[in-house]
């Protein structure tokens, strides 16, 4: 597994996953990504377009990352996840823990502050 950190929108970091997240590589992932969060970037989007599989250790790493980001007032959002990784998230009910978006742009917009006008529009169309 390889992940490529890429900063967008100033304080939002996108991590592109490539391959699987499992016992062979989870330690390096946790060390590197927690260092990013501890360094002050606590708003993360994990792009799972090329994530092929995820083990229980990988799920634990995502949960740990989510908790650390929340401690700093941030959040972790997932995008472009499908196939077996999505099935595993649903089976473990982690789709209730993580906000999951169909594409990177929607995940990025989810970090945007909601104005009073947006909030009223969401309530009117039932998306809030």
Largest pleated sheet: 5 strands, mixed
Structural class, judged by helices and strands?
A: alpha/beta
Shape: globular
CATH superfamily: STAS domain
Rg, Cα atoms, Å: 15 Å
Distance between the termini: 36 Å
**CATH architecture classification name:** 2-Layer Sandwich
Strand content: 25-35%
The ordered H/E elements are: EEHEHEHEHH
Please give the count of helices: 5
Averaged pLDDT: 88
- Total number of strands: 5
> What level of helicity do the residues show?
40-55%
Q: Mind telling me the CATH class?
A: Alpha Beta
Low-pLDDT regions? none
- Main β-sheet, spatial strand arrangement: 1-2-3-4-5
Within the CATH hierarchy, at the fold level, what is the topology?
Transcription Regulator spoIIAA
Instruction: Give the tally of structural domains.
Output: 1
Features:
single chain; 128 residues; alpha/beta; Transcription Regulator spoIIAA
What would you note in describing this structure?
By secondary structure, the protein is an alpha/beta fold. It has a single domain, classed as STAS domain (Transcription Regulator spoIIAA, 2-Layer Sandwich), CATH 3.30.750. 43% of the residues lie in helices and 29% in strands. The chain is built from five helices and five strands; from the N terminus they run E-E-H-E-H-E-H-E-H-H. A five-stranded mixed sheet has the order 1-2-3-4-5. It is globular. The termini are far apart.
